[in-house]
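User: Reviewer 2 asked us to show a designed sequence for the structure in our supplementary figure. I'm pasting the structure tokens here. Could you produce the per-position amino acids so we can include them in the response letter?
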């Protein structure tokens, strides 16, 4: 409480507790726990809220990332994808994703073949769906048609124009569940 009154940030407090007493597990608390305590104490008239960065008596509840975003409309779920794809016995089943560049600089569209781990990439000028679909079409132009069977992407906004990708490349596009990176293991591991 004394450090909070000296305007220490809750994040700093939690890290300091780890340094001061590294073996004591009961003293572990998250920054979120401190913020909750501060704002619960402010309701009946407490004053610790005056020592956090944003000095409001009530906290604006933060939504989890993407909570307001819905699913891609008219998508074909990964659960509808043939189970044989998971066995990785046939070449031509791809996973696609984006890697963002520095702020406002675009990124890279990546595509990994599940069996061979062949990696195909394309530069993105921005994070829009149109740019991704164009980069994907361009990247797969050099891949023979018999090696283009399916493409699995995540539920991000860059993949909303998947119908254009299907029309240009001839691949069936499947969309993974939101917040389920394990459904696209080879691509996530390639990025890592």
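Assistant: Here is a per-position design you can include in the supplement:
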């Amino acid at each position: 409480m004394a450090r909070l009154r000296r305007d220490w940030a809750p994040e700093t407090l939690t890290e300091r507790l780890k340094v001061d007493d590294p073996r004591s597990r009961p003293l572990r608390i998250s920054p979120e726990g401190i913020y909750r305590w501060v704002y619960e104490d402010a309701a009946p008239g407490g004053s610790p809220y005056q020592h956090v960065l944003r000095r409001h008596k009530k906290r604006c509840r933060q939504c989890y990332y993407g909570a307001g975003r819905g699913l891609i409309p008219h998508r074909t779920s990964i659960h509808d994808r043939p189970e044989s794809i998971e066995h990785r016995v046939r070449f031509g089943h791809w996973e696609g994703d984006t890697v963002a560049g520095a702020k406002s600089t675009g990124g890279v569209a990546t595509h990994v073949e599940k069996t061979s781990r062949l990696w195909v990439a394309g530069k993105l000028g921005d994070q829009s769906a149109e740019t991704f679909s164009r980069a994907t079409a361009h990247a797969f132009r050099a891949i023979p048609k018999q090696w283009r069977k399916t493409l699995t992407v995540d539920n991000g906004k860059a993949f909303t124009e998947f119908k254009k990708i299907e029309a240009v490349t001839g691949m069936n596009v499947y969309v993974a569940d939101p917040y389920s990176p394990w459904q696209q293991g080879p691509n996530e591991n390639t990025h890592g």
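For the response letter, you might also mention the following. The two ends are 40 Å apart (CA to CA). DSSP finds six helices and five strands in the chain.
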